[in-house]
Design a protein that fits this description.
The complex is a heterodimer of chains A (about 80) and B (about 230). Chain A is α+β, with helices and mostly antiparallel strands. Chain A is built from two helices and three strands, in the order βαβαβ. In chain A, strands 2-1-3 form a three-stranded antiparallel sheet, with helices on one face. The chains are: A alpha+beta (about 80), B alpha/beta (about 230). At the A-B interface, α1 of A face loops of B.
Amino acid sequence: MKAIVNVYLKEGVLDPQGKAVHHALGSLGYNSVTDVRIGKQIILEIDESDKDIALSKLEKMAEELLANTVIENYTIELE
Amino acid sequence: MSKLKVSILQFPGTNCEYDTVYAFKKLECDTEILWHKENLEIDCDLLVIPGGFSYGDYLRCGAIAKYSPIMRSVAKYADNGGKVLGICNGFQVLTEAGLLPGALKRNDNLHFISRIQHLKVISTNNAFLNRCKEDEILNIPIAHHDGNYFVDENTLSDMYSNNQILLKYCDSEGNPMVVNGSIDQIAGVCNRDKNVFGLMPHPERAMESILGSSDGTKMLEGFLSQ
């Protein structure tokens, strides 16, 4: 099955790339944008038939490698 | 007195290992380079994780290197009190591996910063900076894209009370200077047991006055005092 892991900086951890993009959108005239956060999306194909097993493995992967939980949060979606 | 033995790790993408060899040879140490796939007992007086771009900085700086086979030996060596110094990418690897607190984010101006930078010595009561004086100003090259040190407030206050904050960025007068967005302008830290050290600046590139600064000498010489 296909899994999508989204990794992004925690609330309260300043996101310098998001800030730069926010500023650039402002200079393009998109003044209604009040915040921009940039993260990354990791798309995995995983050979598991049981969703719960896949989910628990993905959580371990996120904790161990895909995210740095000192500064980042993550979400996991299964398709 | 027997010579100090310094082991220096090499990952794919490491590029400061030979500068580090040069610096410690200049201090009359024995040096060896250890390839990351070695699965051996680390036996040295100081282990250095040098600068570079291990694994192309893929995913996050240091994130892949922390699972190299040799890192298991590094963790064991550090747990037994062995001294470890991480410079630049080495600092990133040590935070990723959980051997040092905090994390290093993208510089707040999003630029790769490469220049000679003043640093203020904050704490000298350790195996690394014991040849320096508190509040002394050093001049050391920095060269990084992800040196924006972050640590949560509680951990930071513990680190202050335990003298784990070692170096901060400053101007030539010693005033705090924002360089890359690091919390409290922190440039270098150590762990609670004061045997694992990490810094973004490159003391191994500051060993010759003719190349801009020799202040790296008195930093690295600290390890000879033991």
